[in-house]
Design goal:
Elements (H helix, E strand, L loop, with lengths): L3 H9 L3 H23 L2 H18 L9 H17 L8 H4 L46 H7 L4 H12 L4 H8 L3 H18 L4 H6 L5 H15 L3 H6 L1 E8 L6 E3 L1 H12 L8 E9 L2 E9 L6 E12 L4 E8 L13 E2 L2
Helix pairs in contact: 1-2, 2-3, 2-4, 3-4, 7-9, 8-9
Length: 343
């Protein structure tokens, strides 16, 4: 098998197949890196495509073949920073609007690209935790972590991801971002302070839990069963007392069992809505249990994708702390889910 230097030389000579072999092992981790930076699947894919095109065009400037991965990260990170210079950070309704009264009317959806998007767990299939990293791979893609990340200025965000998620050394981060080591250290200190303020995590729980944890699977099964049976009481019993219910692109969201119960009972599972055919498929997103929702408008018609619910589980109580429903059917294909289901 050819070594890295030989493949780099072939690619530098114009061999596109050699270049494809070079970037293949890094494409998915670059996608996840750009997702953390941008909070968007679409943006991450666009930036990685742009970064790889730039890398192909500039490959002859690479002096040290062994630094190829770091070189790719530099190109991709700078491309992310360019995007972030031109737009606002992604967020969720609960971070910018007060909770709504379920007895009131719902606000119109905001279709502008301002909301966080979910990440398919399949994008992390080959990822492994770095023992030098502050956060596990699973924790670093949860919706709560992404929401906190988006509060960081772009360059601090890059520093924190590279140091505390990927486990890079300060001198490596300084070289990648064209910063001094002292500037990296200062940026990291400020970024960690922000994360401590806005991202509360149980380190022991995060380290010990696994994405396929049996207890999490049982909780998801119970949740799916409650929806399938239109059992509102069972559904609400699975939630924490102060659970939140979020539905981007709608800015309207609810807090607490009572408010969520009223919303579900008067709209989602109201008697007038129970004639709608429904299908629910368990899946995973952002290292968390999730459920794909399909509705059948009329008998005999196909079931159509409606939304993807991501469940944030409080593992200290094994109740659901947050339900985030991404009402964006076009996301389904990213998760290997069909847009339509037959009977």
């Amino acid at each position: 098998m050819k070594d890295l230097s030989a493949i780099v030389r072939e690619a530098q000579a114009g061999d596109e197949e050699a270049f494809a072999r070079l970037v293949g092992p890094y494409r998915r981790e670059l996608l996840v890196h750009c997702y953390r930076m941008l909070g968007s699947l679409d943006d991450a894919e666009d930036v990685v495509q742009e970064a790889l095109l730039h890398a192909w065009r500039r490959l002859r400037t690479l002096q040290q073949p062994t630094s190829f991965r770091a070189w790719l990260y530099k190109i991709a990170t700078n491309a992310c920073l360019d995007v972030l210079d031109k737009r606002s950070p992604r967020t969720l309704p609960s971070a910018v609007y007060p909770p709504a009264d379920p007895r009131g009317s719902m606000a119109a959806p905001i279709e502008d690209p301002i909301w966080l998007e979910p990440l398919p767990d399949g994008w992390l299939v080959d990822a492994a935790d770095n023992p030098e990293a502050r956060y596990t791979m699973r924790e670093s893609i949860t919706l709560a972590f992404q929401l906190a990340l988006q509060l960081l200025p772009p360059r601090r965000r890059a520093v924190l991801i590279l140091r505390d998620v990927l486990g890079w050394h300060a001198r490596e981060v300084a070289a990648l971002l064209d910063m001094t080591i002292s500037a990296v250290t200062s940026a990291l200190h400020r970024a960690r302070a922000t994360m401590r303020k806005y991202h509360v995590a149980d380190r022991d729980s995060a380290a010990k839990s696994r994405p396929d944890d049996e207890r999490t699977r049982r909780l998801l099964d119970e949740y799916v069963e409650a929806w399938g049976a239109s059992d509102i009481a069972k559904l609400i019993a699975l939630l924490k007392d102060d659970a939140t219910w979020i539905m981007p692109p709608l800015p309207t969201w609810y807090r607490g069992r009572e408010a969520i119960h009223a919303f579900v009972a008067t709209l989602l599972l109201a008697p007038s809505a129970r004639g709608i055919g429904r299908r629910y498929i368990p899946t995973r997103a952002n290292g968390q249990p999730a459920m794909a929702i399909y509705h059948q408008p009329a008998a005999g018609e196909v079931y159509q994708a409606v939304g993807l619910q991501v469940l944030t589980v409080d593992e200290s109580a094994w109740h659901i702390a947050q339900v985030t429903t991404f009402m964006k059917p076009e996301l389904f294909s990213r998760f290997g889910l069909a847009i339509e289901l037959s009977e």
